[in-house]
Automatic annotation (TrEMBL):
This is Kinesin light chain. InterPro entries: TPR-like_helical_dom_sf. It comes from Lepidopterella palustris CBS 459.81.
């Protein structure tokens, strides 16, 4: 974020990847929080119908089905 800015596509991808890493480490609260922020930003920047946005929404929804949505 600091180097490229919050709206840069590489930043959005890195945020989503970090959320996936957190989930893999069992850091579910951090994962859900970061993925939710990734979905919010990606929706604003790329649009709700963009394939990347839809993939992040699908990932977050699957976590909710796995009961990882702790908030």
């Amino acid at each position: 974020k600091r180097v490229l800015g919050e709206e840069h596509p590489s930043t959005l991808t890195s945020m989503a990847n970090l959320a996936l890493t957190f989930k893999g480490q069992g850091r579910n609260e951090e994962a859900v929080k970061l993925m939710s922020e990734s979905v919010r930003l990606t929706t604003l920047i790329l649009g709700a119908d963009h394939p990347f946005t839809l993939s992040l929404i699908g990932e977050l929804d699957s976590w909710k089905l796995e009961n990882l949505d702790i908030n």
